[in-house]
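Before relying on records like the one below, remember that each one covers exactly one chain. Contacts with other chains, cofactors or solvent are not represented anywhere in the record.
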Amino acid sequence: MDCYTANWNPLGDSAFYRKYELYSMDWDLKEELRDCLVAAAPYGGPIALLRNPWRKEKTGSVRPVLEIYSASGVPLASLLWKSGPVVSLGWSAEEELLCVQEDGVVLVYGLHGDFRRHFSMGNEVLQNRVLDARIFHTEFGSGVAILTGAHRFTLSANVGDLKLRRMPEVPGLQSAPSCWTALCQDRVAHILLAVGPDLYLLDHAACSAVTPPGLAPGVSSFLQMAVSFTYRHLALFTDTGYIWMGTASLKEKLCEFNCNVRVPPKQMVWCSRPRSKEKAVVVAWERRLMVVGDAPESIQFVLDEDSYLVPELDGVRIFSRSTHEFLHEVPVASEEIFKIASMAPGALLLEAQKEYEKESQKADEYLREIQELGQLTQAVQQCIEAAGHEHRPDMQKSLLRAASFGKCFLDRFPPDSFVRMCQDLRVLNAVRDYHIGIPLTYSQYKQLTIPVLLDRLVLRRLYPLAIQICEYLRLPEVQGVSRILAHWACYKVQQKDVSDEDVARAINQKLGDTPGVSYSDIAARAYGCGRTELAIKLLEYEPRSGEQVPLLLKMKRSKLALSKAIESGDTDLVFTVLLHLKNELNRGDFFMTLRNQPMALSLYRQFCKHQELETLKDLYNQDDNHQELGSFHIRASYAAEERIEGRVAALQTAADAFYKAKNEFAAKATEDQVRLLRLQRRLEDELGGQFLDLSLHDTVTSLILSGHNKRAEQLARDFRIPDKRLWWLKLTALADLEDWEELEKFSKSKKSPIGYLPFVEICMKQHNKYEAKKYTSRVGPEQKVKALLLIGDVAQAADVAIEHRNEAELSLVLSHCTGAADGATADKIQRARAQAQKK
């Protein structure tokens, strides 16, 4: 244990800090770090270097090279910089590299040097140029703050949703501030800057002078400032050599330290652990590194090489040409276990386990001591927690073995925390590997979350490792393996040195029918890369037509899209393609396409019936469909034509079409309608009243009702209305008029072709029993019983039924015998039935 704590450095009485090596860097740097613009992403992210040829002391004319490395120094990308002078580099939360140029244009590159997009910080920045820039992170995303040559600030709190904000002017500011930074307070981005001995806080509305509480006197200038990883704390380095530390709101002072160095530091960053009460700041000069906090002494390290500091959630990464190290506060669990002469439960359990492996009886002594104090559960938990904070796998195993050993003597210790820690450490050790180069700590890993870590592995194109992690952690397929395979497929389609056929086959063999994978998304990526044929091949594997069709339309493969839509049986999808085709093709080609697709043609006709009648007519004309064309003209004659002449002309055109279709019946019926229309117009002119648009029967009825019986009979003769139908029409019309005298004359004009029962029925319908009785005697024998029952003469109906000896008629009369008055009639019928049965 003494050797293990050799690199522990105390800061005051309550905290230790240690620095250990993450990687030995084998990168082949052509320039010193001091001669480059450097940006390193947090959470073990990549490192970007751009040699700065625009420095005044440099006069080289060679174009610089932008290089991107993993945290372990493995090259990820290298590209020749062909754009304008760069002022600052920084990484977004999505690990995109933001390059801020002097003209205010920000170029965005991917992890592998692929250009993503660009945006401008506004015309004012373009005119005044960029003096300095900061990339910062908020809960909304990654932001950019710009200091222009006019000494004004412009910022955007989220580059993903660019909204530029020009900050208020600082009164009396004639030169660049000595130092400045971006702060995030109350969900709003601010700028804090130093001008001589004064500090100013800029928000969207005003510029406010602020004073750090408890600042040592004699300060004439602030040389450096640093905001903590969580934007809660602020450190100020003054020209007197003092470092003031307090809250970012500048309302509370934490401590102040005199480092006795007045030279401005190269970098100053915070080094604090989550939920730790200790706050420390790391300050770096050329060959000196100092850790200061709320203690009279500091921790100092000698820097053998030019180094760069990267603030992290729970510490500071320090990399140079040859090494990459991590400096952090020793976690409480580790401190209690490994501190010299520690009697903490975890320390005793670790010793017990080591003695047990040596087969020493001391193991029992240590274990009994822990059990007597009732601290065995706490000891196991301490070992599990400490294992998570260890970087070396051998120490992780030693602590986990101790925890496992202690669990054996506990009855009800839940295994979840132990199992989860084993899983987490296995994942962490995998991503910390030199070839992967993501040196996450346990705290960073928990803050980052598994899905984000998987996204970062996908960004690095480490698909096999990402899939292994998903399978090991048993993540749901849609969130894990399927999502990663989809990303792999999207990367695969960008490999233009492989044929379309081979790429499509490889993707299908790997993906198959994996749930959650959309071939249409992969095809869209292929189309975006200019590989249309590959996109079409991939769409063949997409089972959902609703996903195939939109992309095919986007690729201008409309006819193929139409075939796919028809195969799907989704009429809405077919209509979508048809409307797209209509706008894309000329009229003739569109109609020819429809002729080759009967289902599409039928659906389009349905659409045209409701929306585009003229197009429907053109379709019928092109297909020589005279039958439908005739029907179209008939509908059009009534829907569109108000004038009788236009309607007659349209009907005549319809009749001609029916003749061409060899539909004699339809043609004759149409011609009869033309005759009727002309006759109705003549009747209106001669008699007045409304006749147009009435049917033939209604026209006859109207003539009878208006007293023009002769005209009605002539119309019936002209249109060959059968006598039976005419008698019915006249009978109904006279009854509606209640012209009973004329009705009686009409009944006697000649023998009724419809009989006289209808007369009885119509009269009773009009509630005229008196008139109905007049026709009862004239009703034929077969309908006599019905007529008598209609007028309510049940007794006489019974006599007629008995006389006819008709069982059906007897039953009908019997069903009408309901009241007491009909009792005798019912008995008469029953006796007649009995006599009939005896015979």
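The mean pLDDT is 85.
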